[in-house]
Amino acid sequence: MLKKTIPFIICGFLFPMILWAADYSRCAQRFALSMQKVENSYGIALNENELLYYGKQAPEDFKIIKSDPFMGLYLLQATKKMTPLELKDLTDEATKGILGVGSPEGFSVGKIVSRMSGFLDYAQFSEFTPQNSVISSICYQFYGIGTGDGFIESSYIKRFLDGDNFTYGELGALFVNDSKRIFVDYVEPFIKGINLEMGDEVLEINGQIPASFKEFLQTIYSLTPNTEANFKINRNGEIIDISTAVFERTGGMLLPHHYLSALGISFSDDWTIQHISNPPTGLGFERLEVGDQILKINNVDMPQDFIQGAKLISKNSKQPIKLLVVRDGFQFFVTINKTAENEWGGLLGE
After folding, report:
1. Which of 21, 45, 255, 284 has its CA 20 to 30 A from that of 70?
2. What is d(CA 31, CA 38) in angstroms, rounded to the nearest whole number?
């Protein structure tokens, strides 16, 4: 919780000569003029008509002027005339001064523990930074916006405010960090150009050894779509070099990952087909229908967990896949990932 009364912070409308007698609970009063309630949080006024907002989902009931949903930043149209806060550069000099984190609910004094080093690798403050609180030294200025898990520095905010199109790199693969080693955990099946495989250990990316998992992810986000990334990997004990396609990111970061994105098929958690739109042709997917439920893949029961099921499909995607499907009470086999002339398996009465 933010403390209601904190001394020793410069508040914009307090006379400097009485600094040491200042009561900075009044900063919360100043912030109330510059923050409008947005859902369970606040939007921060950048001018009389526009609000800066951070959230993992787009806010409702406000006009969105522009957004970067991958970072969770939104520029909103205020619904009333606001008194703006001034966004200031977080310089090394600024970090040496007395800083606090505040909102209309209060203000707490603290210090910056670490700087921001990636799109989702937030700067850290010694005090809790509630969502859409501000990091400030003077009540009418701010250096960053709270996320609940640190804060986004002004340089990243200005990048958002100055930009129009926010694109990030994607490799069609998900990675895990295991004992400081990076492995490919999932690969999107049925997409050309992806040369990574499940279980690959990443040794280098574009000639660099990742110093950390966070740095590795930051490198991926910064890749240019429609290019290639070069990897040195350990695949089943063999060290090899590969190039793999870089795509424009459509999921991940703060958005949900799009598992099985190339199929054009959406499933419920029990692997019942809910929607089909432009599935790959000539591979057998066109034989599936809305309402079909996949029971087994290559004689293995579909996992209850959707992500594990997606991984099972990915693991088998370089070979023919025999699905056991139930439709209107009848079970049958259909082989996918083969040429169009392959036929169905026989119907199995339930």
Report:
1. 45
2. 14
- Write down the pTM of the prediction: 0.84
- Helix (H) / strand (E) containing 145: strand 144-146
Q: Which residues, in sequence order, are bridge partners of residue 276?
A: 265
3-state class (DSSP) for residue 342: coil
Residue 350 DSSP one-character state: -
User: Which two structure tokens, joined as six digits, stand for 83?
Assistant: 């008194």
DSSP state of 272: B
Write the CA distances from 203 to 176, 212, 241, 269, integer angstroms. 13, 12, 10, 35
The 10s digit of each residue's pLDDT in 123-174 is 999 999 999 999 998 889 999 999 999 999 999 999 999 999 899 999 999 9
Selection from 117, 125, 119 nearest residue 211 by Cα: 117
Query: In which residue are the tokens 């439709």 written?
Result: 327
Residue with tokens 């990574």: 196
Distance CA 136, CA 347 (A): 69
| DSSP string over 81-120 | ---PPEE----HHHHTS-EEEEETTEEEEE-EEE---SSS
Tokens of 170: 């994607």
Contacts for 131 with CB less than 8 Å, ≥ 6 apart: 41, 54, 55, 146, 147, 148
Cα separation of 166 and 164, whole Å?
Answer: 7
β-bridge mates for residue 201, sequence order: 183, 234
Pairwise CA distance, residues 264 & 249, whole Å: 17
pLDDT digits (tens, 9 = 90+) for 169-184: 999 999 999 989 999 9
Q: Which of 146, 167, 188 is nearest to 310 (CA)?
A: 188
Distance in angstroms between the alpha carbons of the first and the last residue of the chain: 59
Task: Decide: 152 and 73 in contact? Cβ < 8 Å.
Answer: yes
